[in-house]
Amino acid sequence: LASASALLLVLTISLGPYAWVSGGRAIRLPLLLLVPVTLAAAYCRAPESVALGLLARLAQSLWYDHNPLSALVGGYYGLFVHVFLTQPYRGKLGGLLRWPLLAAPLAGLLTWPVVVAAQYAGASGSFLAAFAQAIDSSALVLLALVVQAAVAGVCTQLAYVALRLRPVPAPSRLPPYARSLRAKVLAAYLPIAAAGLLALSGVLVWA
User: Fold this and answer.
1) What is the DSSP letter of 89?
2) Of the candidates 116, 127, 173, 200, which lies 20 to 30 Å from 9 by C-alpha distance?
3) Per residue in 26-38, is it b (16+ CB within 10 Å) or e — as a string?
4) How far apart are CA 130 and CA 124, in angstroms?
């Protein structure tokens, strides 16, 4: 099912003057690719969701982008979304992360380092030239992945409503960031520091 989803509801996008980002090729995006992965992440164990993610992205790479290393992106996506949907922490943040509508796109965003590594492996030229090429192409790949994850999140959310069954019906644990004052300070500081570092890296790369 994970492999077959690479052939269903495929969206073809022509980039026009920006086709150089994709190597001159049109983008073919199987919109339902991550639906089986996200459903498995919600109702199965982590190994099953990781394996489905690997198979789904491997099928997409074999049919469309011809980069087998991009299968790792699917594996990490399956792991991240499984952690989000099945974490048992109380509180508003834990509750929001158990919603597939939010968890799936966020898991897609968190795979960005793996996307860059996969694109760098297929790039050519010197280290800096290949890295810059990987950063450029990874933005497009990541956007496509987030769109697929959003579609999967919507479908999984509908499955929650139809089946009336959620992975964690009664959260029972206190989240790590709420267990001490130090943890609360770090939880407030680290996201801001990470966002600033990413912004600075983007300015340096695109300058």
Assistant:
1) B
2) 116
3) ebbbbbbbbbbbb
4) 5
SS (H, E, C) 28-68: EEECCCCHHHHHHHHHCCHHHHHHHHHHHHHHHHHHHHCCH
* Under 8 Å between Cβ of 14 and 26: yes
pLDDT above 60: residue 5? yes
Long-range contact set of residues 169-174: C-beta below 8 Å, sequence gap at least 24: 171/88, 171/89, 171/90, 171/94, 171/95, 171/98, 172/88, 172/90, 173/88, 173/89, 173/90, 174/89, 174/90, 174/91
> Could you tell me which residues come within 8 angstroms of residue 33 by beta carbon, excluding any fewer than 6 positions away?
5, 6, 56, 57, 59, 60, 148, 152
> What span, in angstroms and rounded, lies between the C-alpha atoms of 139 and 202?
11
How many angstroms separate the CA atoms of 193 and 110, rounded?
16
pLDDT of residue 91: 78
How far is CA 102 from its chain centroid?
Answer: 11
pTM flag (> 0.85)? no
Structure tokens at 40: 């498995």
pLDDT at 6 over 70: no
Q: What is the CA radius of gyration of the chain?
A: 18
Question: Are 48 and 75 in contact, with CB atoms under 8 Å apart?
Answer: no
